[in-house]
Each structure stands twice: as C-alpha cells, then as structure tokens.
Amino acid sequence: MGSDSDWPVMEAAAQALDEFEIPYEVDVVSAHRMPREMIAYGEEAAGRGLKVIIAGAGGAAHLPGMLASVTPLPVIGVPVPLKYLDGMDSLLSIVQMPAGVPVATVSVAGARNAGLLAARMLAAHDEELLARMREFQQELNDQATEKGKRLRAKVEGAASFGFASGK
Ligand SMILES: Nc1c(C(=O)O)ncn1[C@@H]1O[C@H](COP(=O)(O)O)[C@@H](O)[C@H]1O
C-alpha cells in the first residue's frame, strides 16, 4: 500500500487471505515517495515467488498501475477513500489504465473483494483452494437464504399481530 494510513482499509484483504490460509506479505511501497524502491519491488516480485499483488492507495493512486507496468504478475488495485473526494480520485486513477497494462480494480475500499479475487486467481491452479472457494460461496448462499427467511418471518409476524390486534 502507499502508506500505513491505508491499513485500516487494506486489512480486510489480509483477513480474507487468512480465511483461506493463503500466505502473504504486507508493506508500504509508495510510487510517489519512494519510486526506486517501488520499481525494485515490482521487478523482483515474481522472482521472489509472489503470485498476485494487491495494491491499495488513496488520492492520486499511481501505485497499482506503476507496479503493473514493471511486473508480469496480476495486480489488483484497491481505491482507498481519503478525507476529500470520497475515493473517487483514487478509483479513477486506478481504473483508467491504458490498454496493455491491466489492473483489476475493485470498488472503493473493496479490500475484502481484492483478497477474495486473489484467492480465486490462485485457486485456478489449486484444486484444494478451488474446493474451499466453492464452500465459501455455498456459505454465502446459505446466509442470504437465512436472511430472507428471517425477514419474511418478521414481516409476516408483524402483519398477523396487526390483524389480531385490529390495527
Ligand atoms: N497514492 C499514494 C501513493 C502512490 O500512488 O504512489 N503513495 C502514497 N499514496 C497515498 O497517499 C495517501 C496519504 O498518505 P499519508 O497518510 O502517508 O499522508 C495514502 O492513501 C497513500 O496510499
């Protein structure tokens, strides 16, 4: 990420990776403030065994795009909202990449989805991870079904109470 101030948003990506027991590293690598280190990080990432880079930054967020320009690895960009402009500046900086240099951009503050997307990328070549991803999707499905059941019970309960009390 571009700064340690991004961590409160970005830690949701780490949490998603934890849930799938995917090892990761966390670092501050700013394109603007430490350009040489940022280029070295991007150039060395694949050789060090990294498979996917999740890059989160706020404001004029050039970090994801610059990393994508120097690594062959997939880069997922997370727009981090700051005090002004609600993350729109970051979103547009990350999403509008020129053809040839892709960055998979998630929603503003969508760090959890960035972690899940990275897990899916890794699962494409890992049957066990793929099976866990299917389980995870089934859990989401079950939770949504349960929410519907609870809401229907609540609304129907209120309606029959209104009827019984003559309201
Ligand atoms: N967008 C970038 C880049 C970059 O793109 O290289 N480096 C830092 N930043 C962003 O500046 C914001 C404020 O940073 P500070 O809180 O350190 O002042 C952070 O959201 C960071 O990601």
From TrEMBL:
Task: Name the PANTHER family on file.
Answer: PHOSPHORIBOSYLAMINOIMIDAZOLE CARBOXYLASE (PTHR23046:SF2), PHOSPHORIBOSYLAMINOIMIDAZOLE CARBOXYLASE CATALYTIC SUBUNIT (PTHR23046)
- Give the classification, highest ranks: Bacteria, Bacillati, Actinomycetota, Actinomycetes, Kitasatosporales
Q: Is Isomerase among this UniProt entry's keywords?
A: yes
- Which positions does UniProt annotate for substrate binding? 3, 6, 33
Q: Which gene encodes it?
A: purE
A single GO molecular function, which one?
5-(carboxyamino)imidazole ribonucleotide mutase activity
Function comment: Catalyzes the conversion of N5-carboxyaminoimidazole ribonucleotide (N5-CAIR) to 4-carboxy-5-aminoimidazole ribonucleotide (CAIR).
What are the BP-aspect GO terms? Answer: 'de novo' IMP biosynthetic process
Q: Which organism is it from?
A: Streptomyces himalayensis subsp. aureolus
Q: Would you tell me the protein name for this molecule?
A: N5-carboxyaminoimidazole ribonucleotide mutase
